[in-house]
Amino acid sequence: MLMNSNSQDWGSERGREATIAAPVSDLACLAVTFPSSRRVGDRRSARGCAFTLIELLVVIAIIAILVALLLPALGRAKQKAQIVKCISNLHQIGIGLKMYVDENGDTFPPATASQLAQGISDWSSFRHGDVLGGIEGSLRFSWIPPVTNRLLSSYVPAGEAFHCPPDRGLLDSGQAPTVFESVGCSYSFNHLLHANFYANADDSVNNLALKRENWVPDPALFISIHEWGAYPMGDRYSDVCSVAGWHEASHPGKGFGRADIKDAGKFVAPVLFVDGHSQRCDFTPSLRKDLLHGLEPTKDWIWYKPQK
Ligand SMILES: [Zn+2]
Fold first, then answer.
1. 2-42: per-residue pLDDT in tens?
2. Ligand 1 centre and the CA of 213: distance in Å?
3. Ligand 1 mean position to 48 CA, how many Å?
4. From ligand 1's centre to the CA of 236, what distance in Å?
5. Could you tell me the residue ranges of all domains in the chain?
6. Where are the alpha helices (DSSP H) in the chain?
7. CA distances from 25 to 19, 20, 40, 57, 173 (A)
8. Which of 108, 114, 140 is nearest to 127 (CA)?
9. CA 159 – CA 248 distance, rounded (Å)
10. Geometric angle at alpha carbon 149, from 144 and 155, rounded to 5°
11. What is the pTM of this model?
């Protein structure tokens, strides 16, 4: 009698226990319960399938661990894909640049329309070196040539070829527009040096712009096209210099100056060389060593030709 009485009490408790049940399909059901293990067994056998809260949490934890393991690998895969796309862009631009040089007396494009007009100074003239191709951007400054006036547009008509995938703008927060969106071109010709930093350069102002092919000291090492990210931008009249990385950057597009360059992330960028090949370069050590002279020669690349 005692046992029967207990059995009945236990049965009545089962009826009062807190149970949340939610059907997930016609074939299965999901119930979150808080009973003892014996009661779970009873319920499972009675209803076909059910998970306890603990089991559910364990599954969620396992999924979270798998996602946490996968995310860095996915991030690295995305970065590699962006490098590959960027190198492909530079390869196309390199073919177009070579065609341009061949059709213009073995001479590279000018930095500006003024330089092409043999020294006539006009700061509103087209800055060809900044925008050799691409699309019409949102900015409408007089120095930005329309697509039809860009020197490589007819050789590389696909505007997207001038779009670096991780382009996040320059020196501003992540919300800044990309360089591609603003001026229509993520890449620049290697036409810019800062005279007070590179006074020993053969041309410390226009660099490769409007030079003959035979001026280049080592075509396999001399950079001809680079993206704006990872290129140090200095004020010609002061010692202020800053840089913003895109590829593999911890804060793409965010600017770093002399004071915080040591704490910044990586400065990685694919570049095009005069001989037509392109490859990924890690400029981090050069820039951290001396941001004001971040373009000094290394064994893997040179930005400018030294004076003889
Ligand atoms: Zn790129």
1. 344 444 444 444 444 444 444 444 444 444 444 444 454 45
2. 25
3. 56
4. 26
5. 80-293
6. 2-16, 37-47, 53-103, 113-116, 179-183, 284-289
7. 19, 16, 21, 20, 46
8. 114
9. 24
10. 120
11. 0.78
